[in-house]
Amino acid sequence: MLSTEQLKAIRKIQIHTSHLVSDFFAGAYHSVFKGRGMEFAEVRPYVLGDDVRTIDWNVTARTGAPHVKRFVEERELAVILVVDASRSTRFGTVRQLKSELAAELAALLAFAAIRNNDKVGLILFTDQVEHSLGPKKGTRHVLRVIRDVLSFVPRGRGTNLGAAVEHLLHVHKRRAVVFVLSDFLDPHCFAALKLARQRHDVIAIVLDDPRDFELPAVGLLRLVDPETGRTVVADTSHPEVRRTFFERSQAFAEERLRRLHACDIDAVVVRTDQPYVPALVRFFRTREKRR
């Protein structure tokens, strides 16, 4: 049973993301994510200039007049949201947790998909696959997706994207658009993503928080790894400690993007302290130009 606060949060996300889809993303989504191919629409009389390769010889022979087959783009897609529910996503120091940002982005992508008559599915994972919903259409289904991402209580603490990809490849045989929402801290995730990319169109939505990169100058600070429970005490009053933390975090972020691109996977970096609309707009524009 959902609490009143959770219901309010779901409703707030629904209103906000529906507005964004209407104003920014519906057309961009349609132009970027094409259907699986072409499907037969009708047979019509041949018109001068038609490609002779489209002539339907059976109808032509039966009617005594040349006819051609007309095809239209098969629009329907399956959009699968693969969402990291590990303990590291239950972190945020500004406006929202990474998990809350993931829920909002999942809602935005899901509403854009059903606006274009596509199906939406969900895989929630930690160090195991925690929850899965098959692809379906409709607002009611999308609201369930939002509810599950926002309120699901996982059993695991760590991250194993490989388990999620194994489940994805087993359940979804046909090509789909797969959005992976995670902070990608799992060092083995890139091999799994490369495997998923062989069958699906995979896009990485990278979740970051400013404290992933910068420590506040507050003296002795106890840092806890939310996935392993490992702790370390850092004296943040020393500029050298803060500088070293920043440089190592930046190097990790750059290596993360490099490895995603090496897997031929587009990456969209979003932060809990910044609006995500500009990053998504840049992603759609880049994709559209590439097409």
What topology does this entry show?
Elements: H1 4-32, E1 37-45, H2 57-63, E2 67-74, E3 78-84, H3 98-115, E4 119-125, E5 129-136, H4 139-151, H5 161-171, E6 177-182, H6 189-197, E7 201-208, E8 220-224, E9 231-235, H7 239-262, E10 266-271, H8 277-290
Parallel strand pairs: 3-4, 3-6, 6-7, 7-10
Antiparallel strand pairs: 1-2, 4-5, 8-9
Q: Overview of this structure, please?
A:
With 291 residues, the protein is an alpha/beta fold. The protein folds into 2 domains: 4-33 and 77-290, Rossmann fold (3-Layer(aba) Sandwich), CATH 3.40.50; 37-74, no CATH class. It has helices at 4-32, 57-63, 98-115, 139-151, 161-171, 189-197, 239-262, 277-290; strands at 37-45, 67-74, 78-84, 119-125, 129-136, 177-182, 201-208, 220-224, 231-235, 266-271. A hairpin with a 6-residue loop joins strand 8 and strand 9 (231-235). The mean pLDDT is 88.
